[in-house]
Structure formats: C-alpha cells, structure tokens
Amino acid sequence: MIEPELKRTITRLPAILLVVSSIIGSGVFKKIAPMSDALQSPWLILVCWLVAGLISLIGALCTAELAAMMPGAGGEYVYFKKIYSRFFSFLFGWGNLTVMKSATIAALAYIFSQSFNSLVPLPDISFTGLGTVGSNVSVKLIATCLIVLLSYINHRGVVLSAKLSRYFIISIVLVILSFVIMTLFSGKGSVENFHHEGTVPGGWQLVTALFAASLSAFWGYEGWNNIGYLGEEVKNPQKNLPIALFMGTIIVIVLYLLVNSVYLYVLPVEQLAAINHGINQIAAVEVARVISGNIGAIVLSCLILLTTFSCTNSTILMSARIFYAMARDGLFLKSAGKVHSIFQTPSRAIMWQAMWSLVLLWSGNFDQLTDLLIFASFIFYGASAFGVLLLRKKEPDAHRPYKVIGYPVLPIIFATFCLMLVVVTIVQKPVQSSIGLFLIFSGIPVYMYYTRMIKPES
Question: Which parts of the chain span the membrane according to its record (predicted)?
C-alpha cells in the first residue's frame, strides 16, 4: 500500500499572504507601550521597528537561498541536516516543539483571549495556590479552545487552512490601512508628538533600553521564516518561496512603520509608556479610543482578535511540518510522520504540537513566552545565515535557483547580529535563557533513544 504524501497546492500569492499572516499577530498592537516605556523617544521607537524589520528581511533573504535549494517539508530542519548534521537538525526541531513554535502558538492564543476578554468580560477565575497555572484561568480556557479549534481545522486540510488565512489577512491589511487613513484625517493627532521626548536614557542604560525595545520589535516580526516549512506543498518552490519571503516581509515592514507612526501621532510617548503600566490595556485600543471613543476601541479589539486568530492559524499550519519531517526521519514519534489518508495533512504532528502548546499556555504568561521564544529562535536564525556561508564554500557549484543579494556581507551581518542578541540575552536575562537552553538540550536523551532504533545515515 502506497503511503499518502503531501501535495503541492499553494501558489505564489497564497504563499505571500501566508508569510504576512504568520507575522502580523499581537506585536504591532501591543509592543509600542513597552518600547515607549524603555526608550521615551518617538524616533528611537521607529528606528527600532525599521532596524528589526530590515534585520528580519536579511534573515528572510538568507533563508530564501536555502529554501530554493532544498524545498522540503520542515524548512530549516531540512537545511540543517545537510549543512551541519542530523543531531543539530534534531535539536532545531526539538527546540521548536518545546519552546519556539509551540510558545508562539501559546502566546498568540493568550493575546487572542485577552482581546476577547476586553470585548466580552470573562469571570475572574484564579487559584492562588497553583501559581501561574492557576492565574487567569478563564482567559486560558478561551485560548485553549482556540488552539484546539485551529488544530482541528488544520487537521482537515492545508487548502482549507490556507484559504482561511488568505481571507483573514486580506481583510486585516485593509482594516489596518483604513485605520491609518482615518487617524491621519481625524484631527486628533499632532506632528509635535514626534518632537516631544520623555526622559531618554543615556550611556549604557540607552544600550540596554534599545536591546529591550528591539526584543519587543522582533516579536512583532516573528514568523517570517514559517513558509519554508511548507516546502513540499508550494508549487514551483524554487521561485515562489524566495518571492514569498521577500514580498511578505516587505509588506509587513511598511505596515508596521505606518501603524506605529499613527500611534505616536495620536498619543505622546509618555502616555504610551503609561499604558505599559496599566492593567489589560493595549496601546492600539487606547489610540482608537482617542480617535472615535468606545466604538473605535471595540473595532480595534475586533481587529486584534482577527490578527491573532489568523497568525495562530498560520503558525499551526506551517510549524507542524517540522515535527512531521522529524518523524519521517525516525527521530520523533512514528505516528507524527504519517499523512492523513483523506485530508493529506500531517494530522498527528499537528496533534502533538497542540498538546505541548497547551502545556506552555498553562505554565506561563505572554511576556515570559515571547522572551523565551525570541532568544531560542535567534540561535537557529544565525545558524541559517552561517549555513549559507558554509554551503557556498562546501558546494560552490551546486544549483542555486536564488542567491542572496549582497553575499557575503548580508549573511555575515545577520549571523553576527544573532550571535550578539543571544549573548546579550544570556547576560541580561540568565533565568529565561537557561530555561530556553534547557528545553532545547532536553532533546539529547530523546535523540539518543531514537538513533539506537534506526540505522545511521551512510
């Protein structure tokens, strides 16, 4: 009996929209407040968003070269196996399961539920004796329902899930652009806000503040590499994957700069910073409230619901392919490497991903999850850029349908930046860093177990 395989059903435009939908989540609406609190300068905030976007774009260009060469299900899992080793590739996959993509799903679902709570107040249920597990129980229950629902939708088929993301992200982009235009013509803002600064930190404190703000901005761009995980389901991947990565990231950079400029146009940086100390306040919602009262706040809350719903769906859709690829190589539960006979999806991989996402959801909060996943992600982002350099030297004559522009400068810049971010995070946030590293390396015994059960590669 022939085992069912993944089918190439995703064309160029849906691939671009999937990149956009996997990036635009909660960060663009929420992170302006902590960034304002840290930097106290409108222009430094915009510079952080621009630099984070450009760094992410460089990462996307580096990944595009690898994606065009090796368009298999699992993205970096496939690239790392060829460039480094099966062991390093496994650690990447295990890290995604234990902290990176699963934490992304949990964090997005949590923000979706918080936004739902702002529209429809939920009963305040908490069990103080259980620590973080017993806090915000009603919010976590809604987030749990979202993860289960979207995992079921993705189990039913990639075409259905991709269409869902496509319709949502088109609506989201149109609403965001409408919000920008409406704000500019509302008469409620002032360009003077861009010339007014709070108490801007100096010296080493400024460096620390810029780093903290950059982490917030990078959370906003997280997910730009997800389309590579669908390498076996994208039509003409050698051409469409690089185009999707480039165009999708550019679209998001432009949208983020527009939206954050609007926030700063309406509210002075001190007011945005004050929102960071409020309870259950979201900067975008407060800006909308200034423009059009409670109606505007409700509309923005609905927009955040749409974006987090769409981004959670896209992340579930794409990242489950990593665990499918691991299982297919005999390095994860065998059932996760099976394709559903009717729906042609890695349904068991989606199920395991959902289960661990729920564990992370109930064990922490939004900020803990985002700090954890950004640190872990940049370890492997840097490995991708360094892998471009290694593969060019190792296989200079290999067929490359796409070559990263600015080689070798751009890969070196990106790999160096990733290394700096990881080192600084370890120094400044040793607890979160230790947890992230522990979760990644906790896969070593698992790897040893599975490698005893399979023959080594020749």
Answer: 12-29, 41-66, 87-113, 133-152, 164-184, 241-259, 295-318, 372-392, 404-427, 433-450
